[in-house]
């Protein structure tokens, strides 16, 4: 892979402040380090405090409506880099109620666990199913990010290099350990997890769950909701902070740590060649900041912010943006100055289902954590709203979220802006569910196809056309398996009739050749008997002349 050119940090004044406002949503939180919007919910964020409690915050009035879940007893020390560090809701949370957390336990080890919510408002700590526990040799560098890819539907996990300083165990470059990696697993099955077959180390030497490696401590990554690209902020050692960009589906990358810190060599003993490494799209030195906090690619309603990747420095309280693939730097610190208070100790960014961006201030003590929102001051207009089957409709952002869709794809549906579908109808006996292909297979079902929906006839027996014109009643999956074409409904004389029966030679139009063919079979049965009387006669000629020209479809 080609080494990226060093990006020169060019700060410039943000000129479109009138398009948005920065407002404090709420305060009084206990060390908030992340927030997520559950699919299907509107005007709310689930804020996870480092101590192990998830709070529900109303983003309109700022009220903390209650505790969604409390796992404080399971979470170990949270005064440093441990605690409840990551939260991700399953894309089908509205129906399966599954969500996932990443925390350090009372032994200081990383735990990735699945929980099942009671509803949108509560979940029990007793519903925990631990998916993996990773031993941590030191107390720092626990990373903690969790997020589902909008392209493949898998869960991605960031793991720090194990801590101390300089990666003394060279774990980031060791493909047989999960430390210093981005992991990728399939959690669609009811229990446990499986490894996607296209993970880069499946079938070869290396840990099968690894997606990419050479990572120091990726404190917040994100997926661009428009194209599924991953943007990763990796905290530096002594000199450089960095941002890495990974196009969707390009696993197996080595991001270079501990061989390189940013674009600069750190400890190259035993390291691979530079040409095999992926270097950052942006770096900044410790004269500008010393601890990067990754953010989001903005796909919300403010046009001047659209498509920019936002990130911050935790210690220097600076907020910047770049094009996700690199480019000039814009400093937004002054432009994002809020209506109340100030933004500092930036521990994370968040995005709601309406596309609005939020900035989390961890706070200097256990009672003054805050959340700030960047909101448009321009009245909302209909936007493209995308669904898991790949379909698109244009509605107001709030209506999109209420319908379980995803916004941030621009204003119009054409040309189609939505990511490709990741789900489809799955027939389990005679029942139908919308699942990913893997989940359908695990459930023992038959997958109809990506983008298909469950309707009253999706898995019910119906007309199946074999050999073009023979009609039999089969369930759709069986029909497709035997090479048939699903027509649906009952078998009738027209169920498997060609779309243009007068086009006798299949040329796509009814023309003189078809008329000659009809006349050659005069007074005989055959395909030219368009009225089904049993013989080709004058009535059939009238029908043919009545549809003369190009077939409609």
CATH architecture of the largest domain: 6 Propeller
Q: Roughly how many Å is the radius of gyration?
A: 28 Å
CATH homologous group name of the largest domain: TolB, C-terminal domain
Strand numbers in spatial order across the main sheet: 1-26-25-24
For the termini, the CA-CA separation is: 47 Å
How many beta-strand runs? 36
Helix content: under 10%
- Uncertain runs are 1-17
Structural commentary:
The chain has 553 residues and is mainly beta. It folds into 4 domains: 17-30 and 141-376, TolB, C-terminal domain (Neuraminidase), CATH 2.120.10; 380-422, no CATH class; 431-486, no CATH class; 509-550, no CATH class. It is 7% helix and 31% strand. The strands form 11 sheets. A 4-stranded antiparallel beta sheet has the order 1-26-25-24, with no helix packed on it. Strands 2-3-4-5 form a 4-stranded antiparallel beta sheet, with no helix packed on it. Helix 5 runs antiparallel to helix 6 (538-546). The radius of gyration is 28 Å and the shape is elongated. The relative contact order is 0.11.
């Amino acid at each position: 892979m080609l080494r990226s050119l060093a990006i020169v940090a060019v700060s410039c004044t943000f000129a479109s402040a009138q398009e948005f406002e920065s407002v404090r949503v709420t305060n009084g939180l206990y060390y908030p380090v992340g927030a997520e919007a559950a699919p299907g919910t509107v005007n709310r964020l689930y804020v996870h405090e480092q101590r192990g409690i998830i709070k529900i915050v109303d983003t309109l009035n700022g009220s903390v409506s209650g505790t969604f879940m409390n796992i404080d007893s399971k979470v170990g020390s949270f005064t440093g880099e441990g605690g409840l560090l990551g939260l991700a809701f399953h894309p089908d949370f509205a129906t399966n109620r599954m969500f996932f957390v990443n925390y350090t336990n009372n032994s200081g080890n990383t735990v990735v666990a699945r929980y099942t919510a009671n509803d949108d408002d509560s979940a029990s700590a007793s519903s925990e199913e631990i998916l993996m526990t990773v031993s941590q040799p030191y107390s720092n560098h626990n990373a903690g990010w969790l997020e589902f890819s909008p392209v493949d539907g898998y869960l991605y996990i960031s793991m720090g290099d194990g801590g101390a300083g300089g990666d003394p165990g060279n774990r980031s470059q060791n493909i047989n350990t999960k430390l210093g990696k981005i992991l990728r697993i399939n959690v669609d099955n009811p229990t446990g997890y499986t490894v996607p077959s296209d993970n880069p180390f499946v079938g070869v030497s290396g840990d099968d769950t690894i997606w990419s490696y050479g990572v120091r401590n990726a404190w917040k990554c994100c997926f661009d909701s428009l194209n599924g690209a991953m943007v990763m902020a990796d905290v530096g050692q002594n000199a450089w902070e960095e941002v890495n960009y990974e196009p969707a589906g390009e696993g197996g990358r080595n991001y270079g740590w501990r061989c390189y810190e940013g674009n600069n060599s750190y400890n190259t003993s035993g390291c691979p060649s530079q040409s095999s490494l992926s270097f950052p799209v942006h770096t900044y030195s410790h004269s500008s900041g010393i601890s990067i906090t990754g953010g989001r690619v903005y796909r919300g309603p403010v046009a001047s912010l659209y498509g920019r990747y936002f990130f911050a420095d935790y210690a220097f309280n600076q907020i910047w943006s770049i094009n996700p693939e690199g480019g000039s730097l814009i400093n937004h610190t002054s432009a994002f100055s809020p209506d109340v208070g100030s933004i500092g100790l930036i521990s994370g960014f968040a995005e709601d289902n309406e596309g609005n961006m939020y900035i989390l201030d961890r706070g200097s003590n256990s009672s003054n954590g805050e959340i700030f929102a960047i909101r448009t001051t321009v009245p909302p207009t209909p936007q493209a709203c995308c669904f898991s089957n790949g379909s698109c409709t244009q509605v107001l952002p709030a209506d999109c979220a209420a319908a379980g869709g995803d916004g941030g794809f621009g204003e119009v549906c054409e040309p189609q802006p939505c990511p490709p579908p990741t789900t489809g109808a799955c027939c389990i006996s005679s029942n139908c569910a919308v699942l990913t292909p893997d989940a359908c297979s695990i459930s023992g079902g038959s997958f109809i196809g990506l983008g298909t929906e469950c309707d009253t006839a999706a898995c019910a027996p119906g007309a199946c056309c074999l050999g073009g014109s023979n009609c039999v009643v089969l369930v759709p999956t069986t029909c497709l398996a035997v090479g048939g074409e699903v027509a649906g409904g009952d078998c009738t004389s027209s169920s498997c009739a060609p779309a243009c029966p007068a086009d006798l030679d299949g040329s796509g139009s009814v023309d003189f050749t078809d008329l000659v063919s009809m006349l050659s079979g005069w007074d005989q049965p055959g395909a030219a008997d368009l009225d089904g009387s049993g013989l080709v006669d004058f009535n059939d000629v009238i029908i043919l002349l009545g549809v003369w020209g190009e077939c409609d479809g």
